[in-house]
Amino acid sequence: MQVLSSPTEVAALSLNMRRLGKRVAFVPTMGALHAGHLALIEAAKRHGDWVVVSIFVNPTQFGPAEDFGRYPRPLEADRQTCEAGGVDLLFTPSREDVYAPDHSVYVVEGNLTRGLCGPHRPGHFRGVLTVVAILLNIALPDVAIFGQKDAQQARLIQRMVRDLRMATRILIAPTVREQDGLALSSRNQYLTEEERCRACVLSEALRLAESCYAAGDRDAVQVCARMRARCEAVVPASAVEYIEAVDFEGLAPVTTLADGTLLALCVRVGKTRLIDNVILGRPHMAAAYGLLA
Amino acid sequence: MQVLSSPTEVAALSLNMRRLGKRVAFVPTMGALHAGHLALIEAAKRHGDWVVVSIFVNPTQFGPAEDFGRYPRPLEADRQTCEAGGVDLLFTPSREDVYAPDHSVYVVEGNLTRGLCGPHRPGHFRGVLTVVAILLNIALPDVAIFGQKDAQQARLIQRMVRDLRMATRILIAPTVREQDGLALSSRNQYLTEEERCRACVLSEALRLAESCYAAGDRDAVQVCARMRARCEAVVPASAVEYIEAVDFEGLAPVTTLADGTLLALCVRVGKTRLIDNVILGRPHMAAAYGLLA
After folding, report:
1. B112, B250 in Cβ contact below 8 A?
2. How far apart are CA A220 and CA A17, in angstroms?
3. Cβ contacts of residue B81 below 8 Å, gap of 6+?
4. Which among A153, A73, A91, A92 is positioned nearest to A117, based on CA atoms?
5. What is the mean pLDDT of chain A?
6. Distances (CA, A) of B221 to B16, B120, B206, B246, B254
7. pLDDT band with cut points at 50, 70 and 90 for residue B213
8. What strands, in cross-sheet order, belong to the sheet with A272-279?
9. Which of A120, A194, B228, B275 has a CA 20 to 30 Å removed from the CA of A96?
């Protein structure tokens, strides 16, 4: 496995791989790699001949009161994970490698960012879209893999790639969960033992919603209310940042549940902000949205 | 000369040209081609093996009170101009070819847009950067040529390409002028005969400023005041939208003139908004900013 921090070298290498007829598959990450990231790497290996993973804790997607400073950065463990996972190139740019001191150009989106995490994390998706545009332009991949755990992010990146006509296909890998249902996240390590127990409430609320849908319930307001009640049995009402039912295409609120509805929630457990989601009728939506099995 | 409106076909063709080892040179235009555009095409031929010209009157860069509707669209004459000029591919996308009905992603810049045309045309540069990002991603050129007449636009596009790590070199061709100094512009055809005479005042004011600089005057405020006086001899004070001295690197105001200072002005002659500029010590700045001779 090669390890490079120079964007110029990565771009040259990737371009050369494409010239040799190899399909380049890319997994951008913020490091602190866990089994969820490994599943993205596995998907990249299935969809490409040459797998690039980037590790970059992107400052522009953190708000001033957020956890940029304490975000975990176990670089040597991450390097070993990538090596063992069969990654071909690990790209570890510094802040200066990605952003010039007078960087002033951003990619913004005005529609799919209106709900879910958008209003709660002003500037977050501007930072995400900008860094992903930069990383895609450096790595020049045929495909890039993102996790469904960050569903709004993944859908926004698909929209960016479509609207700006970037030549990369965006695939979305399913969320990897602990046995008790908790979605894997680098931020789970912030949780105390007691909080770790309560954190299950997100996936429990989503399973409850899926049961309602399977039983024929189509009323989004009612189902979201039941999810909320489930959460508020475990955390204070003020800790439930949002519970929303939106269509996956445009992330606009829906009143009637249907295949393609994204049910998503954000709950703060202690000081840790956790998100999770499901897409109803996911298998039927797979082809249209590059949702991997 | 091929003429295509499909972005997919243009992208495939261009990628193939690059695979064959040809250097792709691109000239994005809004049509109504004149000798200024022909100079861009000539420059493209010098810097590339395969020349693509696009004609697209981009709706997102016009304000609601601006001239999108009446902007000239002499497509057949433009086609002949391109053919005679030795263009290899003329790309004429429709609005729908460029923007999906639910297009929602934009490229924005927060610093170089603060002065000059920025405050006077809200949303204009967002539209310009977005469409140029789209066109560059479609045409995938090695180099793209822009005219110095729109100096702020050209500099912004250089900044976008740098910040988003797009793989195209942006070259800036010198402004082409009528014998009496008027910078060529598709909008000159809006001028009545009488307005056409008064329109010379922009280039006259710039020549005056260059004389001051050549004579050793370094006081930007004083030189801009002299330019203003020259303009106000011909048009009402309210018709002078701006006269500014900025550094070409960051387009920030300067108080002392130096090599690399951009002197730029915008004057409305009748109802027609005209812009023009010079870069002081231009030959010394050529290598750093891709300024063509």
Report:
1. yes
2. 47
3. B33, B37, B38
4. A153
5. 97
6. 52, 21, 14, 11, 9
7. very high
8. A240-247, A261-269, A272-279
9. A120
Q: From B105, which residue of chain A is nearest by alpha-carbon distance?
A: A109
Helix, coil or strand: residue B109: strand
Q: In angstroms, rounded to a whole number, what is the distance separating the alpha carbons of residues B191 and B269?
A: 8
CATH of B186-280, one of 3.30.1300.10, 3.30.450.20, 2.60.40.10, 3.40.30.50: 3.30.1300.10
Minimal-distance CA residue of chain B relative to A100: B163
Partner A, chain B 11-50, Cβ-Cβ below 8 Å: 11, 19
CB-based contact B144:B171 (threshold 8 Å): yes
Q: Give the model's confidence band at A234: pLDDT under 50 very low, under 70 low, under 90 confident, else very high.
A: very high
Q: Are A47 and A23 in contact (CB under 8 A)?
A: yes
From 3.20.20.30, 3.30.1300.10, 3.40.1190.10, 3.40.50.2300, which CATH number describes the A186-281 domain?
Answer: 3.30.1300.10
Most A CBs within 10 A among B155, B159, B165, B170, hence the mutation to make, goes to B165
Query: What is the rounded average pLDDT of the residues A93-110?
Result: 98
For B62-75, b/e burial (b = at least 16 CB within 10 A) is: beeeeeeeebbeee
Lookup: tokens for B216: 């050793």
Q: What does the pLDDT read at residue A55?
A: 98
Instruction: Please give the C-alpha separations between residue A254 and each of A210, A220, A224, A245, A283, in angstroms, as whole numbers.
Output: 16, 7, 11, 6, 20
Locate the domains of chain B by residue range: 2-173, 186-280
Pick from A19, A129, A137: which is nearest to B165 by CB?
A137
Nearest CA in chain B to A110: B104
pLDDT reported for residue A81: 98
* Cβ contact, residue pair A7, B165, below 8 Å: yes
The domain B2-173: what is its CATH number? 3.40.50.620
**Nearest 5°: CA angle at A282, between A276 and A285?**
125
Average pLDDT over residues A136-157: 98
With CB atoms and an 8 Å threshold, state whether B164 touches A137: yes
SS3 B97: helix
Give the model's pLDDT for residue B182.
98
| Residue range B89-109: mean pLDDT, rounded | 98
Is the CB of residue A100 less than 8 Å away from at least one CB of chain B? yes
A129 within 8 A of A153, measured Cβ to Cβ: no
Quote the pLDDT of residue B211: 98
Q: For residue range B24-77, list pLDDT tens digits in order.
A: 999 999 999 999 999 999 999 999 999 999 999 999 999 999 999 999 999 999
Which pLDDT score is estimated for B241?
98
Chain B: nearest CA to A70, how far in angstroms? 27
Please indicate whether residue B37 is annotated as part of the active site.
yes
